[in-house]
Amino acid sequence: MSTYEERMSLVEKIKDHEDWSDPLAGWPSPEEQGGMMMSMVQGAVEKCDSGAELSRMERTLLVGSQNTPDRIPTYSFFTDGPANLYGYTCRQVERDPKLHAEVVERWTEEFGFEALGEGIDSMNSEIEAMGLIKMKLPENVPGDVKIRHFDDMSDEEVLDTWEEAADIFNPFTDGRLPRRIELYGHLVERLTKQRGWPVLAAPSATFAQTVNALGFKRAVQWMRRKPENFHRAISAQLKANKKWYRALKSLEVTFFISIDAWNAVPNFRPEQLYTFEKPYVGPLIESVAPSPVIYFYWGLAPTGDGNIPGVNTNWIEFLEKSAETGTFVLTNLAPDYYTAPSNDLKKFRETAQRLGKSYMVGAKDEVLLSGTPQEVRAEIRRIIRDLYPCDKGCIIVPNMIPMGTPKENIHAWVQALKDYGKYPIDLEKIEHDIKAEEG
C-alpha cells in the first residue's frame, strides 16, 4: 500500500498542502440565500413582463426557476474547440488562469452565449489532486487517466486509501486545483462583477470519478459481488467532492454543471445507476443549496425511448429518478456524434414540466462541425418546432463545440435562437420557413 506522500509525489504541486477549512461556514443560511435569489427572479419576471430585453444573468435566473424569459438561452462548454479557435492549445490555456479567463470572456462576447463552462480540466482533476490517479496531459486535448494507483492494491487497501485521501483533501491547495480556483476568481470578477454575466462552474461527477479511479472492471465487479465496497468508495469520493463544490461556491459562481457523461447512461444499466449513483447526487447538490446544479447524463436514447430495437427501459423513469436528486434541469443530450438524443421532444418537455424542472435540449455536435450555416439554422428551427411552445425553462445547447467548427456555424446557431426562440414562439413563421426551404 503506497503512502499519501508517495502518491502525492506524482501529482503536480502548485501550492503546499494546508488543512481544509469550510469557506462557507460564515455564509447566510440556504433559506436566506434562497430568499435573495427569489427576489432577483421576481425582478427579472417584472422586467420581462414589461417587454424589455433581459440580460444574460436575468435570462439564466428565469429559465432556471422554470419561468419563461424573453428568448430561449444557450450555453456551451469550453473544451479544445474554443481554445484552438483563438490560437492556443489546451495546455496553454489550462496552465494560465488569466489567459483562460480572457479566452472565456472573448468567446462569450463574440458568440453571444449566456455562459461558457470551462471543461478542459474537469473529468479527473479532483481524483488526481487526491493522489488516486496520475494524469496524462497531451498538449492539445483534455487530460485523461494514465495510472490508477488502486490497480495493485487489495480491496481493503483501496478503501482505506480512499477514505484517508478524502479526509486530507483540500481543493484550495492540492494538485492543479489552485489554478482552477484562480480561474474562477478571474471569471467572477471579469464576467459577473464587471459585466453582470453568469459564471458556470464545471466540477466532475462523483460517480464518474469513482469509476475512473477504480477502473471499469473493478467498479462493475464491486457492483455485482461487493456492493458494500462500491458504496463505501463513492461515499469517500462524495466527501471530497463536497469540499470542491463548496470551494467553488465560495468564489460566488452562479451555478454548477456536473456531467456523468461517457460512463453513466451508455455503459451502465439504469438499475445500477439507481442503486449506486442516484443516492449520492442529492447530498452533493444539497451541499451548495440553493445554488442551482445541473447534474446531467449523456445518452438517454440508450436507456430506451422506443426507437432502439431490443431496448425496453423507459427513459421517462430515468428522468423521474434524476428529478428526485434535486437537480433543477433535466437533459436529453446525446453521448457522441453517432447517437441521437431522445427523439420525442414533446414528451420530454411535458415530462420535465410535470416534474417541475427546467429542460435542456441538445443538438448533435455533427451539425455544428460538418453542416452548413443553413443546416445549423434548420436544426435549431426543427428543435423549437418539436418543443413548441418551449415555455417554462427551455434551454437549447450544443453538446459541445468540436475542434474545427466553423465560426459561421456558431454564429448561425445563436442567431437562429434569436430569430426563432423569442417568446411568444411564432410557430406560424417556423412552419412557413420550413415549407419555403422544402419547396
Give the SSE order as H and E letters: HHHEHHHEHEEHHEHHHEHHEHEHEHHEHH
- Please identify the top-level CATH class: Alpha Beta
Taken as a percent bin, the fraction of beta residues is 5-15%
Mean pLDDT: 88
Distance between the termini: 70 Å
Structural class, judged by helices and strands?
mainly alpha
Q: How many separate structural domains?
A: 1
Oligomer: single chain
Silhouette: globular
Work out the helix count. Answer: 20
CATH architecture identity: Alpha-Beta Barrel
Task: Walk across the major sheet and give the strand order.
Answer: 5-6-7
Helical content band: 40-55%
Low-pLDDT ranges:
335-340
Radius of gyration: 21 Å
The CATH topology comes to TIM Barrel
Let me know the number of strands.
10
Can you walk me through this structure?
It is a single chain. By secondary structure, the protein is mainly alpha-helical. It has one domain (4-23, 46-438): TIM Barrel, CATH 3.20.20. The longest helix has 24 residues, at 227-250. 50% of the residues lie in helices and 10% in strands. It is globular. Helix 8 runs parallel beside helix 12 (227-250), helix 10 (206-214) crosses helix 12 (227-250) and helix 18 (373-387) packs across helix 20 (427-438).
Task: Please outline the helices and strands.
Layout: H1 4-8, H2 30-49, H3 56-64, E1 75-78, H4 80-85, H5 90-94, H6 97-111, E2 115-118, H7 125-129, E3 133-136, E4 144-148, H8 155-168, H9 177-195, E5 200-201, H10 206-214, H11 216-225, H12 227-250, E6 255-259, H13 270-276, H14 281-286, E7 293-296, H15 315-323, E8 329-331, H16 345-354, E9 358-363, H17 365-370, H18 373-387, E10 394-398, H19 407-420, H20 427-438
Parallel strand pairs: 1-2, 5-6, 6-7, 8-9, 9-10
Antiparallel strand pairs: 3-4
Helix pairs in contact: 2-3, 6-9, 8-12, 10-11, 10-12, 11-12, 18-19, 18-20
